[in-house]
Write a structure and sequence with these properties.
The complex is a heterotrimer.
Chain A (H helix, E strand, L loop, with lengths): L3 H4 L17 E12 L2 E12 L3 E5 L6 H8 L9 E9 L2 E2 L7 H7 E4 L10 H12 L5 H14 L3 H4 L12 H14 L4 E5 L7 H14 L4 E5 L3 H7 L2 E6 L2 E7 H6 L4 H7 L5
Parallel strand pairs in A: 3-8, 3-9, 6-7, 7-8
Antiparallel strand pairs in A: 1-2, 1-4, 4-5, 9-10
Helix pairs in contact in A: 4-5, 4-7, 5-7, 7-8
Chain B lengths: L2 H4 L4 H4 L1 H43 L4 E10 L2 H4 L7 H6 L2 H12 L6 H8 L6 H11 L7 E7 L2 H7 L16 H12 L3 E5 L2 H4 L12 H32 L4 H13 L4 H15 L7 H25 L3 H9 L4 H30 L2 H5 L20 H9 L4 H32 L4
Antiparallel strand pairs in B: 1-2, 1-3
Helix pairs in contact in B: 3-20, 6-8, 12-15, 12-17, 12-19, 14-15, 15-17, 16-17, 17-20, 19-20
Chain C lengths: L2 H26 L11 H38 L2 H4 L3 H15 L10 H39 L6 H41 L2 H6 L3 E2 L14 E2 L2 H32 L2 H16 L2 H22 L9 H26 L2 H9 L4 H30 L2 H6 L17 H9 L8 H34 L2
Antiparallel strand pairs in C: 1-2
Helix pairs in contact in C: 1-2, 1-5, 2-5, 2-6, 4-5, 6-16, 8-11, 8-13, 9-11, 10-11, 11-13, 12-13, 13-16, 15-16
The chains are: A alpha/beta, B mainly alpha, C mainly alpha.
Chain lengths: 274, 435, 460
């Protein structure tokens, strides 16, 4: 993989503060604008997402961080009135290119949602659904293995190994969310997007998920949207601050939380608004 | 294999296998979408076929061929004594006048059987039509007038092309000779085609060319008036009580379950109720709009209550709280604030319920509204029929002329229903409010 | 005095009472409204209620009971030569008397005894009406004076009026219960009379249905057979055909509408589809009998099948068309109740739209769809006009959709239309069938509504 600057047709990469030097970003967004009907939700976002790190998107409600997240695997395609401008690349390839298939893209860029949303099926079927539609396993043993491994990685295996046939909706909230993470892992994505994955969970379940995110970093590129600044500080290596549809500042998490350059960032992390 | 999980990479999604699989998945996607479009197309196609078959069979009934004959209102035949006495006038043989006039046009027809065949061209109702003219205006007696009389249905159908002239005579309703006569009448200008006022001004008749919808339409209006008069106050009151005042207890639960189930009880069962309770137990008159109206009101009540409750529920609680806050009693809150705001929704529900009642047939058969009604019913207790039942009765008659008239009657019924639904749509559009 | 005049006079009196009550209240307070407990118009309503309600209740009671009272009196007045006849014949004679009294055509040349009875009948009704008018007027006036006398600034007029209104509201909501009770009682009562003539086991299990019985003893006719099984199978056959048409078409169009169609298409197609639901059943019946049945017959014949001109297929298909919008709008609601988060979860894994629908949305919506289909089945079973016009009277025990079959509703309609004597097994059998129909559809509805409600609660 060569430097992405060559593959992005005609768009020069501006060097900016916080740009990673030396590593190639897994995903890269340039001038992303999103409109819902006449309303502009994102006003031109530039952001690089480094590989095998956790990038946290923070900011007050309605700032566009979830919207941006949903652009990264084209989930906004499912909304009729949404319109997207700009360039987003995955491994240097424009994901809104006509050549790119959203189905294939979403298999590579998985997503975990705010509220745990297990399908009304058994735990096993929840996990095996993705691999099955993508044809990742040709034999039953292979599928069993994918399910087992995914549940193990999501730290859920010991709790559910005896009841794989029971409905996924019968689990507790935290377990459900880990099931959804396992479901996302099962299709072996390269990037996992998490949209406030802990907002519906209690503190203990949240701690579980945060641990899990830290472990997953080893193998996956993770982008997490969160309201909770402590959480961002705990789990992420890089943090981007969004405000009113703009990305105000991005940098190493430690830097953002200790020496923010923009006063809006400072105001937000010190709790003056949000 | 374990690599899939432990070291994620793009490989599985960039293989040729995956690409081939993806093509198949998209083909399945397109197929599935096609099924949906096909289902809708079939449903809409059926609707189109249904409406087209009715319109194509029925539109001709709005025009009708009349015989335009010069009639001599012969005093010797009508009023030999010249008394102008009503009984004499109404008892005279008017059909003979029409026959005489027709025979005068075909002097060559002499034998009795032939004459009878010739006379068959004039409708059986021509005599009544002439009598009505004379009764309305006795001065006609002794004069010659060119009048329009009903042409017997078979000849009307012949002229409209519904009876095929190329069919062998034995299989045809009209003989070759009769066709010749008709053609001569046409060339002489004795046949006039015009708006079929009989369809709207007459009651039922055994003769297709005379049968009209007036009795059915008036019967429907009377019946609907009773239904409206009962269903509106009872339906709104019940909805208000259940939505605004009712405590949550066993009884109101029961009422609620009951209403939901009543909405799905087959309409014919309401007919059985009407027959057993109103006719047999209460001795109410058979075939009467009042009984039909009560039965239809009971049938449409659940629809109205459910729609009204939905409309009441849509009024936000803040309005109630605001009114209670300025010291209104709960009843005042409802009558002054909630009901007026919910009214468009309630009205829509009522109109839809009424449209349903207007098209309903089965329960009315049970209570005898299937009577053969020539005269327009004058009150709620008179024997009457309604539009859909009239359609049902005509649909049962084998004559070609009734097929046409049945379709026309259906078009009239549908026109009423479209008008009602249009009102509902306008109401909804006009007063729709988003909270 | 006709009914409308009665009610009009009562309305006028109540209005007068309202005005009187209001002015009396104002003057009793010496013109200072703040001294009154309620707003003056409540005093008016209070008086109007006292004027109108008692008289109205009396009026309702009388209209309900008049027929029975007068009938019994006329019956008691009949000469012994008639009262000695069998109950059935007396009933026929009473019908004749009614017809005579209302000036209708009677079934026989009126005997003098009957004419006298008819005159007596009219006479009694005249007296009744006159007495009613006097008593109602008196009640209204009494109410007026009583209420006016009670008006006092301290009278809690609003509370009293509201209490009465509350009672009226409760009574109105009880009408639904009364209707059900009326249906159950009338069906049960007549059905039990039927089951005294024909044992229930024979009715429910018998394989032969031919209800034509001899009307007079000397007539040569079969005794009538009341085995309703052919009707049940016929009903189920037609309902099954209707479901085979309506469920796939209705469900697929609901799926397309809610998941694929752009909102513009949905906005136009949906109301057009609903037109199908608004077309009266008698129109479908006409279409089935005149267009669909000959079409099915011709197609069948050209393919070499013998198709009856009243085939179950024609009636079933048309009924299915009628039910399409019913299935599709119920399914539409149910599919829309599946939370978007489930769809997002599936899309997020890289599923296509149809995979999401088939693997996630439909399984999640399944209980609700089952409920909707049950409701549709209940509707198909209870549908009358289409089958009356397009299916036949021949109660064949067959599963062949190309044969003619008869249904429960067809038999009910034909047995009760036209002249009937109310004691014969033939007429009463219609109520037996009605009871079965009501029980089956009610059970289906209760199950279906419960299933749908459980389903909704799950995703609320």
């Amino acid at each position: 993989m060569t430097a992405h600057t060559q593959t992005m047709a005609g768009i020069a990469v501006r060097p900016q503060a916080g740009t990673l030097t030396g590593t190639v970003p897994k995903m890269d967004a340039r001038g992303v604008k999103v409109y819902y009907g006449a309303k502009q939700a994102l006003k031109g976002i530039d952001l690089e997402i480094p590989e095998r790190q956790v990038t946290a998107l923070i900011g007050p409600s309605g700032c566009g961080k979830s919207t941006f997240l949903r652009c990264l695997n084209r989930m906004n395609d499912t909304i009729d009135i949404a319109r997207i401008e700009g360039l987003i690349t995955l491994d240097g390839q424009d994901i809104y290119d006509r050549e790119i298939d959203p189905v294939q893209l979403r298999a590579r860029v998985g997503m975990v949602f705010q509220k745990p949303n297990p399908f009304p099926k058994s735990i096993y079927d929840n996990i095996s659904y993705g691999p099955r539609i993508h044809g990742l396993a040709s034999r039953r043993e292979e599928m069993d293995e994918i399910v087992t491994k995914s549940l193990q990685r999501a730290g859920l295996w010991n709790e559910v190994k005896d009841r794989l046939k029971e409905p996924g909706t019968g689990l507790s909230g935290g377990q459900q969310q880990r099931l959804c993470i396992a479901r996302a892992i099962a299709v072996s994505p390269e990037v996992i997007l998490m949209d406030e994955p802990c907002s519906a969970l209690d503190p203990i379940a949240t701690a579980h998920i945060e641990e899990l995110i830290d472990e997953l970093r080893e193998n996956y590129t993770i982008v997490i949207v969160t309201h909770n600044m402590q959480q961002a500080a705990r789990v992420s290596q890089r943090t981007a601050f969004f405000h009113l549809g703009e990305m105000v500042e991005v940098g190493d998490t430690e830097e953002i939380f200790t020496t923010p350059r923009d006063e809006r960032t400072q105001g937000y992390i010190t709790g003056r608004y949000g | 294999m374990t690599d899939i999980i432990s070291t994620p990479r793009a490989a599985p999604y960039q293989s040729d296998d995956f690409a081939a699989r993806l093509r198949k998945r998209y083909a399945a996607e397109r197929r599935f979408k096609m099924y949906g479009i096909a289902a809708i197309a079939i449903a809409l196609g059926m609707l189109a076929v249904l409406l087209a078959s009715i319109v194509s069979q029925g539109y001709t009934a709005f025009a009708q061929h009349d015989l335009s004959l010069e009639i001599y209102f012969d005093p010797a035949e009508i009023d030999p004594q010249g008394t102008r006495d009503e009984a004499t006038l109404s008892g005279a043989n008017y059909a003979a006048l029409a026959r005489q006039s027709l025979q005068a046009a075909f002097p060559e027809v002499e034998s009795r059987t032939e004459r009878r065949r010739l006379n068959a061209i004039v409708s059986n109702g021509a005599g009544f039509e002439l009598r009505q003219m004379v009764m309305d205006n006795p001065d006609l007696i002794g004069t010659r007038q060119t009048v329009r009389l009903a042409l017997a249905s078979d000849y009307d159908q012949l002229l409209k092309g519904n009876i095929d002239r190329d069919v062998p005579e034995a299989n045809r309703k009209v003989s070759d000779q009769q066709i010749q006569w008709i053609d001569k009448l046409v060339s002489n200008g004795n046949i006039v085609n015009g708006w079929n006022w009989r369809l709207f001004m007459n009651g039922d008749s055994r003769d297709p060319e005379l049968a009209g919808l007036k009795a059915g339409i008036v019967g429907s209006l009377l019946t609907l008036a009773v239904t409206l008069g009962l269903a509106i106050p009872i339906g709104i009151s019940a909805a208000v009580y259940l939505e605004e005042f009712a405590p949550k207890n066993k009884l109101t639960d029961l009422i609620e379950v009951n209403i939901n189930n009543l909405a799905a009880v087959p309409s014919i069962v309401f007919g059985l109720l009407g027959l057993a309770v109103f006719l047999n137990a209460f001795n109410m008159p058979r075939s009467a709009p009042v009984v039909g109206g009560i039965v239809l009101a009971l049938m449409t009540l659940p629809t109205i209550i459910i729609a009204s409750r939905a409309a009441l529920k849509a009024v936000p609680p803040s309005i109630r709280e605001a009114a209670l806050g300025v010291g209104a009693s709960p009843l005042q809150v409802v009558t002054h604030h909630v009901l007026p705001l919910a009214m468009p929704g309630i009205m829509t529900g009522i109109i839809i319920g009424m449209a349903h009642a207007l098209g309903e047939t089965a329960p009315l058969l049970m209570i005898g509204m299937i009577a053969f009604i020539v005269d327009t019913p004058g009150g709620f207790g008179d024997a009457a029929t309604v539009l859909p039942v009239q359609i049902f009765m005509w649909a049962d008659s084998p004559e070609r002329g009734f097929v046409e008239r049945t379709s026309a009657a259906i078009m009239v019924l549908l026109a009423f229903l479209i008008a009602m639904n249009a009102i509902a749509v306008v109401l909804r559009k006009r007063f729709e409010r988003r909270w | 005095m006709p009914v409308t005049t009665f009610l009009l006079v009562l309305l006028l009196l109540s209005f007068a009472g309202f005005q009187l009550g209001r002015t009396t209240a104002v003057s009793s307070a010496g013109g200072r409204l703040s001294r009154l407990h309620s707003v003056p118009s409540y005093y008016g309503l209070y008086v109007a209620m006292w004027v109108g309600l008692p008289a109205l209740i009396l009026f309702a009671l009388w209209t309900g009971l008049e027929g029975i009272v007068v009938n019994n009196m006329v019956r008691a007045s009949l000469p012994a030569s008639i009262t000695s006849l069998s109950a059935q014949e007396i009933n026929l004679i009473m019908v004749d008397i009614h017809n005579l009294a209302y000036g209708n055509i009677t079934s026989r040349v009126p005997e003098p005894a009957l004419t006298a009875a008819a005159d007596y009948y009219n006479h009694l009704r005249g007296i009744g009406n006159g007495a009613l008018a006097v008593v109602m007027l008196a009640l209204a006036c009494a109410g007026l004076f009583f209420a006016k006398g009670r008006i006092h600034p301290k009278l809690r007029a609003r509370n009293q009026v509201e209490q009465v209104v509350n009672v009226i509201l409760i009574l109105c909501s009880l009408v639904a219960i009364l209707t059900t009770v009326g249906i159950v009682l009338s069906l049960l009562f007549e059905a039990i009379r039927f089951f005294t003539k024909v044992p229930p086991a024979e009715f429910l299990l018998g394989l032969h249905w031919s209800p034509q019985t001899a009307i007079r003893a000397d007539q040569v006719a079969s005794d009538g057979a009341f085995g309703a099984v052919p009707l049940f199978t016929g009903t189920l056959l037609i309902a099954a055909i209707a479901m085979a048409v309506a469920v796939p078409l209705g469900l697929m169009s609901a799926i397309y509408m809610s998941e694929y169609a752009p909102s513009k298409v949905r906005g136009t197609v949906k109301p057009i589809l609903e037109i199908l639901a608004g077309i009266p059943t008698v129109v479908y019946g006409f279409f089935a009998a005149l267009t669909m049945a000959p079409f099915v017959r011709d197609v069948g014949q050209s393919l070499g099948f013998g198709v009856s001109s009243e085939s179950a297929l024609a009636a079933g298909v048309v009924m299915g068309i009628m039910i399409i919008p019913f299935v599709s709008s119920l399914s539409d609601d149910i599919i829309n109740a599946v939370p978007q988060s489930l769809r997002d979860g599936s899309y997020g894994l890289g599923a296509t739209k149809s995979e999401t629908i088939r693997n996630v949305v439909l399984p999640a919506a399944l209980p609700g769809i089952v409920g909707a289909v049950l409701l549709a089945v209940s509707r198909a079973i209870g549908e009358t006009m289409i089958v009356v016009m397009a299916a036949g009277l021949a109660a064949n025990l067959t599963g062949n959709p190309l044969d003619a079959v008869s249904t429960v509703t067809v038999q009910i309609a034909t047995l009760l239309v036209g002249d009937q004597e109310f004691d014969s097994a033939k007429t009463l059998s219609a109520f037996g069938l009605g009871l079965v129909l009501f029980t089956v559809t009610l059970t289906l509805n209760i199950i279906a509504l419960r299933v749908v409600r459980k389903y909704r609660e799950k995703y609320d």
